[in-house]
Design brief:
Blueprint: E1 20-33, H1 35-39, E2 44-45, E3 52-60, H2 61-64, E4 74-79, E5 87-92, E6 94-97, E7 103-108, E8 111-116, E9 119-130, E10 135-136, E11 151-157, H3 158-163, E12 167-171, E13 178-179, E14 188-190
C-alpha cells in the first residue's frame, strides 16, 4: 500500500539559566582548637561571645537560599598552634561549606584574638568590706567585720594572679536597719 511515512525531526536548543547570588550567614559559631597550646601549658582565656562570625557565600540562588543552606552546612575553625609565651594571639579562621556549588566569599572578622597564659594557683588572705556604714541600736557598738574564712585559693592566668593584690568579701547592711546582734551577710568575692 502506498502509504508514505513521514519522519519529522524536531530540533531544539536547551538553554540553562543559572543565576548567581550572594547571601550572608550571621552569627556562625567558631570552633576553637587549643589542644597544641594546652599541651605546652598555655590554655586560652577568651569570652565565648567573641567567637562568632558572619560568612558571605556565593552560589546558585536555589543552593544558598534559607531553605537550602543553614549554619549547619558551614563550619569555621581557629587552630592555635605552638605557643611558648603568654599573650594575645591572633588566629586566622578557616571556613568550610558542605554544600556543592557554594563557596565562601568573605569571613568577617577574618581572625579572632585569644589570650594564652599558664594557669597558676595561689592562696590569698581575705578581708571583709562593707559598702555602707553600720547603724547600731542605742547601747550597742559595731566591731570590725570579719570574713567567714581567712584565706581562699584562687586559680587563673599567671599574669592576672601576679597583679592580684588582695581578695575581699564585700557586703551591704540593709539601710535603716539598727543592729542589736551579730549578723551574717551574703557577700561577693572581689579582687
Amino acid at each position: 500500500s502506498g502509504q508514505r511515512r513521514c519522519l519529522s525531526l524536531a530540533r531544539s536548543i536547551k538553554v540553562n539559566y543559572t543565576d548567581t547570588a550572594t547571601r550572608t550567614l550571621t552569627d556562625v559559631k567558631v570552633t576553637l582548637d587549643t589542644s597544641i597550646a594546652e599541651e605546652n601549658g598555655y590554655p586560652a582565656f577568651y569570652d565565648d561571645s567573641d567567637l562568632y562570625v558572619d560568612l558571605e557565600v556565593s552560589g546558585r540562588s536555589f543552593d544558598i537560599n534559607a531553605y537550602a543552606l543553614s549554619r549547619d552546612d558551614v563550619a569555621v575553625e581557629a587552630v592555635v598552634g605552638y605557643v611558648d609565651a603568654a599573650g594575645n594571639k591572633t588566629i586566622n579562621l578557616t571556613p568550610r561549606v558542605s554544600v556543592s556549588g557554594v563557596e565562601i566569599v568573605k569571613v568577617s572578622p577574618a581572625s579572632v584574638t585569644v589570650f594564652l597564659d599558664q594557669v597558676r594557683e595561689d592562696d590569698f588572705n581575705v578581708e571583709a568590706k562593707l559598702t555602707n556604714e553600720i547603724t547600731t541600736a542605742d547601747g550597742y557598738y559595731a566591731d570590725k567585720p570579719n570574713p567567714s574564712v581567712t584565706t581562699v585559693k584562687v586559680s587563673g592566668p599567671d599574669s592576672a594572679l601576679k597583679r592580684l593584690n588582695k581578695v575581699y568579701f564585700e557586703a551591704t547592711v540593709d539601710e535603716g536597719r539598727a543592729l542589736t546582734d551579730s549578723v551574717e551577710l551574703e557577700a561577693e568575692v572581689k579582687y
